Amino acid sequence: MSTPFYVSPQQAMADRAEYARKGIARGRSVVVLQYTDGIVFVAENPSRSLHKISEIYDRIAFAAVGKYNEFENLRIGGVRYADLRGFTYDRADVTARGLANVYAQTLGTIFSSAAEKPYEVELIVAEVGPAPEDDQIYRLPHDGSIVDEHGSLAVGGNSDQINSYLEQRHRDDMTLAEAVKLGKESLARDNNGGEREVTADQLEVALLDRSRVQQRKFKRVLGSQLRRLLGEDESSGSSDSSSDEDSSEESSGEGSEE
Amino acid sequence: MEANTRDTGRLPTAFLTPGSSSFMDFLSEHAPEVLPGSRPLPAVEGAVQAPHGTTIVAATYSGGVVLAGDRRATMGNVIAQRDIEKVFPADEYSAVGIAGTAGLAVEMVKLFQLELEHFEKVEGSTLSLEGKANRLSTMIRSNLGMALQGLAVVPVFAGYDVDREKGRIFSYDVTGGRSEEVGFTAVGSGSVFARGSLKKLHRDDLTEEQVCTVALQALYDAADDDSATGGPDMARKIYPTLTVISDEGCRKLDEDDVSALVRTMHEGRLQQPNGPQAPLT
Q1: DSSP type of residue A91
Q2: Chief location of this protein (chain B) (predicted)?
Q3: Is-catalytic flag, B54?
């Protein structure tokens, strides 16, 4: 029998964190942006059916990067939590803050328990409020900490570059089309400051739209509607395509910054 | 019980255990005490006095289906509520109307709505109309114990079948037995009178406005002969509810539209108290 080595708690935690971070960094990113009427999520996702962005409850959505089975498990747990809470109390008592706390506790316990492998996931829980200043966006890294965010953020593989790109360009009063375009451009950033081609087919876009009349504010943006927002529709007028060119100029100028 | 847990604050194991997409299955595993069907029943003598809802009418038309409900809840011979709502949207393309013990029925509808929504969120797709109708069957069946004590809930379920592109109606008995109705049906204490009226007035090729009028006429006839069904309350401006489900989804008619239809019908009834007459040949 071999003698167990002593590993300092710092070292053990650092190893676990590195393990989780590496797992997360392998995947593509998700960006979240506030716009005038709500919050929009843009993810690079080649799959039509395995979603990175989902509805949790009336005003709450969930986005995740990392290992699919792990975040899917957390997503379903969140849906169950929200539905049960809404059923036993009231629909208004289901909040993103409550959900984010439960996720944080869950991730935190898993991260620091030696018996379980840390989850290789990073989550976003967002809630759209009656006015832009009431919007809430929480980022939950693999270790169970919570970061209260505002404006725009990216999680996943290339999040540092994407975040710095977003920081310079995002405004709170963007229209939906501007926000989706910015999301798409930011996802096209790659590690060494260059740009890749990202088309509408590779994107998963969903939004929490406070102007929706329905109680459930979550909506997926699909197919032709997405292409229209991105100005990729061939049938769209010339004004759309010219604004597209403008934005690509911007992004090529930005490449040197890295 | 409450999700935000007893000890650690993390999601309990049951929440993270892969399993069925049904919210009711999850509840029966994790929190059986909140399910209406699994509550212990006290021994009681005779029927329990609780508000009852009464007549619901469902009828198809060329573009979908309409569900109409009167607004009266009774407790014995007392009118318990004058403006109760008995028709609820279940999801985008379906709605459920309830007759029976109001408190339990409303709770059942809430659970049914959540069941459909939960499935939709977990699976990323909606149940078929048939699937929804079957889920409702299961829920009524789980209420059988209470039904035998006089706390029965009898819903009628109607929806637009997006695959078959038409409106469909399902009716139930207290044991959860389900049957699909062709054209129209009615449930509740005034249903016999409503059904008689519908039989004479309903046709397959009605427009949305016509089918709404037919439903209102049937409710009027039900209220005419059944004391537990409320007619349109012109003085208080409390009119029946009309919920239309078409390929555009489920929509409750607003008060102005219903008021206009009710007033036209009422004018007619002032001339002909028994309402429109079917041809004799």
Answers
A1: G
A2: cytoplasm
A3: yes
